[in-house]
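Dear all,

This email documents one entry for the complex benchmark we are building for the journal club exercise. For each entry we list the sequence lines for every component of the assembly. Then comes the predicted three-dimensional structure of the complex as a token string, followed by one or two observations. Please use this as the template for your own entries, and keep the labels exactly as they appear.
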Amino acid sequence: MLGAVHPTIPDSLTFAVSAAVILSGAIGVIVSRNAVHAALSLVATLFGVAVLFIEEQADFLAVVQIIVYAGAIVVLFLFVIMFLGVDRRENVADEPLRGQRPMALLLVAIALGGVVALGVSAHWATGARAVAGSTTAGHHPNVYVLGKSVFTTYLFAFEATAALLVIAVVGAVVLARRPRMDEAAGLTGDEPVADEPDGDPADPVAESGAGDGSPTHEEVSR
Amino acid sequence: MSIPGQWYLILAAALFTIGALGLLIRRNVLVMFMCIELMLNAANLSFVTFSRMLGDIGGQVVVFFVLVVAAAEVVVGLGIVVAIFRRRANASADDLHVLKG
């Protein structure tokens, strides 16, 4: 079934190289002991996926993939890794739950085999064609078609993602801020509390928005 | 003739299972997050492939929303990791068996 159609040489080459980069990057993520190396392997995987998006004529998503994933998410990962100083090596051989790794390997192999067997024995993609609009409607470019669909059919979901992003930003700020003196007094004794000589009781959003950089240096130097 | 969609779907299945395996065997919370990103990317690749196989733009729209949700998820997740790390200087998932701060 897989050999029914014969792709051209450049297409095959692009797919093969991208697939090799994606899979080696993914394996690098799960076997590298250093979290920074894992993040860099993740970048390789994300770039490979972006190349495959271009190969599938999803140009806009390829660009967004690189900007959002490789440009924002991985940088956020690296920032947190270095902020927390967890880039020391993890003891991979330490296995608290006996027999968990072979069991995980077995289950994952069964899952992969099941999915591939299902796909081979049945049709890979079934259903109505072009329900939400054709990918090549009137030979418009991909960005045009995608944008038209997002701003008409999926407008409500698009607005909901705006609310989601605002909630996520506020939640992250509240989570990552340093607790104030009166809050920290009732908690564990090893909590470093003495900072900010003026100690104004500003509201949490404005406080951590303004002074987000200052705890960083203290955390790292301690 | 472009690459048949089945190849992409098999690649996406392999990528997803690698991510699931990493989530199961790793102990570092940050690496577990990266494995979740791997699985999300595998799902995205499947969606784009289905979009091309069916000629339907809906799959690409879903990927667009998945990217947004993934960004929000990483922001909140890393905020939680930073908050946990303030309390106990450890990023291992095994030490997080109590919810009490």
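Observations: The longest helix of chain B spans residues 58-87. Chain B has a mean pLDDT of 86.
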